């Protein structure tokens, strides 16, 4: 089986331990790694109500953390010789992921295993690997 393009889906709670297996998999298949961080409004609203902070403050923090994670993945991928493409998007994760799969002809979706990703496993049109 060959995967020319893989998409690593990240959110603010993604653990950095997820990066290395994704990068090594792409290296072994000589795949380009697309890294996607999605900011979901419903998660921001939920965090705002729990923490009693302003949504703008939370959004800014999550966006900054997102870019930080994207750059960490890129640094490790470049060191391993894996081509990367970084993306930060707003929207509903399943919709954004579907758009990326279709637009960039992604052949493998990489996600961190957790309960929230069940909807991604079910709705994906390409193989999904939990890390």
Structural class: alpha/beta
Class, according to the CATH hierarchy? Alpha Beta
Strand order of the largest sheet: 3-2-1-4-5
Helix-strand string: EHEHHEHEHE
Low-confidence segments, given as residue ranges, are none
C-alpha geometry: globular
Number of domains: 1
Corresponding CATH architecture: 3-Layer(aba) Sandwich
- Give the radius of gyration: 15 Å
Biggest sheet record: 5 strands, parallel
**How many separate helices?**
5
Strand content: 15-25%
Number of strands: 5
- CATH fold-type name: Rossmann fold
> Roughly what percent helix?
40-55%
CATH superfamily: HUPs
How far apart, in Å, are the first and last alpha carbons?
Answer: 18 Å
How confident is the prediction overall: mean pLDDT?
A: 88
Descriptive report:
With 131 residues, the chain is an alpha/beta fold. It has a single domain, classed as 3-Layer(aba) Sandwich (Rossmann fold), CATH 3.40.50.620. It contains five helices and five strands; from the N terminus they run E-H-E-H-H-E-H-E-H-E. Strand 1, helix 1 and strand 2 form a beta-alpha-beta unit. The longest helix is centred in the middle third of the chain and has 25 residues. It is globular, with a radius of gyration of 15 Å. The mean pLDDT is 88.
Features:
131 residues; alpha/beta; single chain
Write a short abstract of this structure:
The protein is α/β, with parallel strands linked by helices.
């Amino acid at each position: 089986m060959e995967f020319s393009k893989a998409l690593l889906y990240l959110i603010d709670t993604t653990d950095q331990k997820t990066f290395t297996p994704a990068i090594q998999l792409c290296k072994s298949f000589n795949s380009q790694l697309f890294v996607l961080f999605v900011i979901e409004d419903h998660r921001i609203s939920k965090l705002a109500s729990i923490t009693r902070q302003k949504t703008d403050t939370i959004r800014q923090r999550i966006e900054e953390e997102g870019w930080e994670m994207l750059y960490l993945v890129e640094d490790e991928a470049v060191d391993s010789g894996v081509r990367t493409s970084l993306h930060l998007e707003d929207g509903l994760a399943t919709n954004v992921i579907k758009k990326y799969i279709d637009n960039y002809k992604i052949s493998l979706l990489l996600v961190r295993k957790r309960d929230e990703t069940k909807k991604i496993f079910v709705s994906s049109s390409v193989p999904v690997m939990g890390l």
